[in-house]
């Protein structure tokens, strides 16, 4: 068995895939089996060193780090390598090679997007929220965050999209086109139960472009609705929350009060 040959076991992080390849010795050539796995949607990032007669590659499935172990016969096992205590062995390596770069890239994309400031710009905790002006769950999150925002501990950065109602783009245009977008966003939330901010009479082309770009960014991060919330954890990795966080998740999102 594989575990007997290289003195470790594998527990699948995804369905195990055993892919036949040509017989090959351990070398610097790219194993043909990787191309097959990439055809199934796995993205191979980089090779890393492990002990034994096996080559290891850091990959990503969606936005999840995953390892590929190629055996000397050219076959591959996709999964998580664990030690005798059942502890993941390559977790830190995968975080450094895959998870951290992905998080950094995603965070940079959020930073460069068009967003509306909500809270003190010097607040230490930054949270991005994909927001529709007509979204009741976005409004609930806005309300729930007030103690943290008002205390100067959290700043929300609302990335506006216009997807829920016909006048959502026009309301986004009213906010983005206001002399003070932050005040306009607050007006929408304060008046939410009365219909929110008055929609703009038209949506300029540049606002259309912003809303399209924001929606594409939202989709690229795996969100299919609002709110889509993104925050960085203590390790610098992004954590994503789809929809209004449950009571137990609010502390994870907003941090200590």
Written account of the structure:
The strands form two sheets. A five-stranded antiparallel sheet has the order 1-5-4-3-2, sandwiched between helices. The protein has helices spanning 2-6, 32-39, 91-112, 136-144, 146-150, 168-176, 181-190, 205-220, 247-254, and strands at residues 9-11, 43-48, 54-61, 64-71, 76-82, 116-118, 125-132, 154-161, 228-232, 238-242. The protein starts with a helix and ends with a helix. It has 257 residues and is of the alpha+beta class. It is elongated, with a radius of gyration of 23 Å.
Main attributes of the structure:
257 residues, alpha+beta
What's the helix and strand layout?
Layout: H1 2-6, E1 9-11, H2 32-39, E2 43-48, E3 54-61, E4 64-71, E5 76-82, H3 91-112, E6 116-118, E7 125-132, H4 136-144, H5 146-150, E8 154-161, H6 168-176, H7 181-190, H8 205-220, E9 228-232, E10 238-242, H9 247-254
Question: Runs with pLDDT <50, length 5+?
Answer: 1-26
- Looking across the biggest beta sheet, what order are the strands in? 1-5-4-3-2
Compute the average pLDDT. 88
> What separation lies between the terminal Cα atoms?
52 Å
Tally of strands: 10
Radius of gyration: 23 Å
Question: What order do the SSEs take from the amino end to the carboxyl end, as H and E?
Answer: HEHEEEEHEEHHEHHHEEH
- Percent of residues in beta strands: 15-25%
- Can you give the helix content as a percent range? 25-40%
Helices, by number, come to 9
């Amino acid at each position: 068995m594989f575990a007997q040959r290289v003195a470790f076991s594998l527990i699948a992080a995804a369905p195990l895939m055993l892919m036949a390849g040509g017989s090959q010795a351990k070398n610097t050539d790219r194993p043909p089996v990787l191309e097959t796995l990439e055809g199934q949607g796995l993205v191979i990032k980089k090779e890393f060193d492990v002990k034994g007669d096996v080559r290891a590659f850091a990959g990503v499935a969606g936005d999840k780090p995953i390892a590929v172990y190629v055996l000397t016969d050219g076959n591959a096992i996709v999964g998580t390598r664990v030690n005798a205590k059942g502890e993941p062995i390559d977790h830190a390596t995968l975080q450094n090679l895959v998870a951290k770069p992905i998080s950094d890239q995603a965070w940079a994309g959020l930073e460069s997007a068009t967003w509306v400031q909500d809270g003190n710009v010097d607040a230490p905790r930054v949270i991005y929220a994909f927001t529709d002006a007509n979204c009741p769950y976005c409004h609930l999150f806005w309300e729930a965050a007030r103690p943290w925002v008002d205390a100067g501990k959290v700043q929300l950065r609302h990335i506006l999209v216009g997807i829920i109602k016909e006048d959502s783009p026009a309301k986004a245009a009213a906010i983005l086109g206001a002399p003070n977008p932050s005040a306009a966003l607050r007006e929408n939330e304060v008046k939410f139960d009365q219909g929110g901010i008055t929609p703009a009479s038209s949506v300029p082309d540049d606002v259309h472009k912003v809303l399209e770009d924001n929606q594409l960014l939202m989709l690229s991060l795996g969100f299919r609705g609002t709110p889509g919330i993104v925050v960085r954890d203590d390790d610098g990795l992004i954590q994503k929350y789809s929809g209004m966080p449950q009571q137990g998740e609010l502390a994870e999102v907003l941090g200590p009060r």
